[in-house]
Design a protein that fits this description.
The chain is an alpha+beta fold and 349 residues long. The protein is built from 12 helices and 11 strands. The protein is globular and about 70 Å long.
C-alpha cells in the first residue's frame, strides 16, 4: 500500500490502518499533517460507477451545509485508476477524511435527529439539481426500487420467523405501493444514510460519507432508509420517525403520496437489508461487518408488523400539517385486496 500511495499520489504515510467494509477494502492513511481514505475494489466492473460517484462528490464539495468526502487526484490528474496489485487487477482511489463522531457511537437524541433531517433535506435539495446517466441507469440490490433482486435471497435468511416476515412485507409492498410507485418523485439520492455513514460535531449532524450506494430512485427512499438506521437501536420507532420527518419536511416539503408509502418503504428497507446481508454472509462468512446490523433489523421487523400502516401514516401526516385520514373498514380492505389479486391473476393468462 505504501508503494501505491507514493507512486500514484506522492504521499508518504506514517500509518496505514485497515477499516471495516462491506465489499471493497478501505484504509485510513495518516501522513504528518493529513488523513485520507484509500479505497480499493476487486470488482473492476464498477469503474464507471466510481467515476460518476467522484463527479457527485466534486459537485457536493461546494456545499456549505454539510461535510462530505472530497476526491483526491492522482499525480496524473485522474481520480480512479486500474492497477495490478499482488498479480490481480484492482481499482484504487483516494478521498479526504471527514472529521466527526459517528451517530452509531452516540445515543440518539432530539438534536441529532432534528439536525439529521435538515442535513438530508439539504443534501437531497442539492442533488435534485445534478444528473448523471450512469447513476440513473444503475440497477443493483441496494436500490429499493430494484427490490426484486433482493427478494431472490429470502431463502438464505436463517431465521424461519424472519423469512416469513420478509415474505409478508414484500407482498404487502407489492400490493400497497407498486401500483402507485410511478407517481412518486424521483431523484439521485445517497441511498445509505446509516449510523456508520453519518457524522456529528458538537452533538449536531454534520456530515455524510460513503456514497457507494448512490442511486436514482424514489426521493422518499432516502428518508425511509434514514428512519430505519436512526431508530432501530431504540424502541419507539415512530417517535424518532416523526422527528426526522418534521425536520426533513421543513427543507423539502413531503407530498401526501410519499407519506402514504413511507411505512411500506421503511419495511422494504428492513427486508432488503435482511436478504442482502444473508446472501453476503453466505458468500463471506468471516466478514463480521456484514452482520453488524442483523439483530437490530430482525428486532425492528418483528416490532414493525405490530404497527398499523394507517396509524403510522396519520402520525406522519400530522407532523407535516396534513389532516388525519379515516381508517378504512375491514370490508373495504378485503374488497381492495381481492380486486388486486384477481387483476394480477388475469395478467398471467
Amino acid at each position: 500500500m505504501e508503494t501505491l500511495l507514493q507512486n500514484y499520489f506522492g504521499l508518504f504515510p506514517l500509518k496505514i490502518e485497515k477499516l471495516n467494509g462491506y465489499e471493497n477494502i478501505n484504509y485510513l492513511v495518516k501522513t504528518n499533517n493529513q488523513k485520507y481514505i484509500f479505497k480499493t475494489y476487486s470488482d473492476v466492473k464498477v469503474f464507471q460507477v466510481l467515476i460518476s460517484e467522484t463527479e457527485a462528490l466534486n459537485y457536493l464539495s461546494k456545499a456549505k451545509d454539510f461535510d462530505s468526502p472530497k476526491p483526491i487526484k492522482f499525480l496524473d490528474g485522474s481520480y480512479v485508476k486500474r492497477v495490478i496489485w499482488n498479480d490481480t487487477e484492482i481499482l484504487i482511489r483516494l478521498i479526504s477524511f471527514v472529521e466527526g463522531d459517528f451517530i452509531g457511537e452516540l445515543n440518539v437524541n432530539d438534536n441529532i435527529v432534528n439536525s439529521l433531517g435538515l442535513m438530508l433535506g439539504k443534501l437531497n435539495l442539492k442533488l435534485q439539481s445534478w444528473s448523471n446517466y450512469t447513476i440513473k441507469s444503475r440497477e443493483f440490490e441496494w436500490n429499493l426500487d430494484c427490490f426484486l433482486m433482493s427478494k431472490d435471497y429470502i431463502d438464505q435468511i436463517e431465521s424461519f420467523e424472519d423469512r416469513k416476515l420478509v415474505q409478508y412485507f414484500f407482498q404487502q409492498y407489492e400490493f400497497e405501493v407498486l401500483p402507485i410507485s410511478g407517481n412518486l418523485r424521483k431523484s439521485i439520492i445517497h441511498n445509505d444514510a446509516n449510523e456508520w455513514n453519518l457524522l456529528t460535531k458538537n452533538g449536531i449532524s454534520s456530515g455524510i460519507i460513503d456514497f457507494g450506494d448512490i442511486s436514482y430512485a424514489a426521493l422518499i427512499n432516502e428518508l425511509a432508509i434514514a428512519i430505519v438506521y436512526i431508530s432501530y437501536r431504540e424502541s419507539d420507532y415512530l417517535h424518532w420517525a416523526e422527528k426526522l420527518i418534521a425536520s426533513y419536511h421543513s427543507i423539502i416539503p413531503l407530498e401526501e403520496l410519499e407519506l402514504k408509502v413511507l411505512y411500506y418503504k421503511i419495511s422494504l428497507r428492513l427486508c432488503v437489508s435482511a436478504c442482502n446481508s444473508a446472501k453476503a454472509k453466505k458468500e463471506n462468512p468471516k466478514n463480521k461487518y456484514i452482520t453488524h446490523s442483523e439483530s437490530k433489523v430482525s428486532n425492528m421487523l418483528r416490532a414493525w408488523i405490530k404497527i398499523s400502516p394507517y396509524h403510522a401514516e396519520n402520525r406522519f401526516r400530522k407532523v407535516c400539517g396534513f389532516k388525519a385520514l379515516k381508517t378504512p373498514s375491514i370490508s373495504s380492505l378485503i374488497s381492495k385486496r381481492k380486486k388486486f389479486f384477481s387483476s394480477n391473476i388475469s395478467k398471467l393468462h
